[in-house]
Records
---
Amino acid sequence: MDFELTDSQRAQQDAVRRFVEKEMPKHLVQKWDEAQEFPLDLLDKMAEIGLMGASLPTEYGGTGGGVMEEVIVLEELSRHSSSVAMAYGMDVCFGAVTIERHGSDDQRQNFLPRLVKGEVHFALSMTEPDGGTDILGAMKTSARIEGDDYVINGSKVYTTGLAFATHIFVVARSGRDELKPSSGLTVFLVPKDTPGITYRKIGKLGSRFLHSYEVFYENVRVPSSCIVGSPNRGWHAIIDTLNNERIFIAAVCCGLGRGALEDAIQYAKDRKAFGRSIGEFQAVQHQLADSLVELDMAQLMTYKAAWMQDQKKDCSVPAASAKYYASEAAFRTTDRGMRVLAGAGFTTEYHMQRYYRDIRQLIFAPVTNEMSKNFIAQAGCGLPRSY
């Protein structure tokens, strides 16, 4: 059992850390948040230093890493901005992993080298207006066959990153089996500029410069070559992608929590009260110690889940556990950070309020922590299904 990163992973971590300090220092992230504008050139700069191919084989122009390398990049980006990390994750999680594992040879040859170069970007359009976690029961978006094409109709919500995405992964119901609801779903990879696609931006409390959208599909015609995986068997690709998504979000939470904790520690050292720094008071020290312990545990859980997926082991319970625990740990860390900074934390001059706002969505997105616990109880504890 080895808890050390490899030399190449350590070098990658150092490279991403330098990139973060140079290209996205916290004062710049603050400006992006206030202006609610994503710096599109940032993704191009990531591609230039090989980050877009961190989890892809060398045959596609990647660096030969895996999910663990993806996690390392996400953690470092999230220390300064979870919004930037989420944008990166849309490409490497929903894009690279899904296409590499479930795409056709033509799709892999077409999209993966272009993704490494930063020429294509992806968004996932899966959540329905009438149901979030209940994917199978709430799926109303349909795809019917017309000749050699499919015609998609329906609407989605919370499709993130659509502003800069070139392609959208659209999950639609193309068939129905009353005895097996998971049958009949198909995943399509659709160019964003396809006729019939319109969208509306949704205002948000946090992650304000990585916009989410409501998307409408009206007679959107796509060829069968847009299908990722097999027709009517998209659930298998979705499940594999969702495990990676859980790990991706856990890594973002770990990085966000680290960034908030670093700010809280620095403030505790600098802020003076009653003739000494507030970091000398036990009441403050205990809050920071609790955060450090919880984030360390969250990181271990996340690394284990990433390692298991790289080894092609069943990581469904560890991935769900990591997402659940890491988001709660980061949530508590930002709350304690606000307490340590007190009035300063409530001002926009400090970054703690941004961490505090941004973590809120990751408690219930992309899956609620309550639903994660339902699944852990069912699959991990062997208890009856509760939903």
---
Amino acid sequence: MGGAGFTLGQLATTLKGTVDGDAARVVTGVASLEAAGPEHIAFVADARYRQTALTSRAGAFLAADDVEGLPAPIIRCREPRLMLIELLHLFHPAASFAPGVDASARVAPDARVHSTATVGALAVVESGAVIGAHVRLHPLVYVGSGAEIGEDSVLHPHAVVREGVRVGRRVIVHAGAVLGADGFGYAWDGSAYRKIPQVGSVVIEDDVEIGANATIDRGTLGPTIVRRGVKIDNLVMVAHNVEIGEDTVIAAQTGISGSCRVGKGVVLGGQVGIGDHVSVGDGAMLTSQAGVVSDVAAGAKLAGLYGRPLMEFQRIWIAEAQLPDMVRRLRALERRLEELTKGE
């Protein structure tokens, strides 16, 4: 496949789906339901978006089997969200980069840069660092002394990997992220705060993605560890000696305090706050702005400032909306009671 576009038949074969409609129709790109034109294929996540799809100008749709009556041919598949990923890769293949070190980059003589790696303009690779096969260091990346970047990883502009940090394979570090800054550790000596040397490291395992301007601090003694498959959004703070379990997802502006343990498959919504030395069990979910200062059981679903169980938080939230009416009714009852008790 290639050229200016793909027929729906070609796409269906690649996506292991079926075509409902004209398989010979050609599309040249992917677009949202609102922005799509006749040359585009648009994604219908589920039946909730059918009404929007009915007014779309898209030339074709990618949808699940239960979405009916759309105004253009449909590629149907069991997992449309996963197939959307494949579709986007087809129309937007990753850019290729020529291996080599830009003339303006600074690479220490004893650093090891694989012959297939790319080191961009003004990037810095310090003494003893190791850059693996097919790594892409965008311009202005900094890799500290003794740090290791595993094969097929990508560091975007202004990413900082401090000394001794280990980054696994197929890791993506977005612009401005800092891995291995000092942990926030001080002791009061009676007249001033004295800095506790942070001599640990950071270990990022394979297939992790770290968002723009996220920060992951080095441990005081041992490492801060981010396990395989973790996805971290922009502006997330991970403090020293934290360990995050496999396949956990962390949304923007979340803060995880020092020495916490976050289990496997945990979901942390935006602006979640976790106090120090707290354990969050496997599969737990904390909704946006939840705050917890004590351990969270595996599979628990918490919400709200004080990390209440989700159903309890929802009942409180609903009750809060009824408070003005409750107050009016209470005052009316008080007045009625006062009238009934007059003269007693």
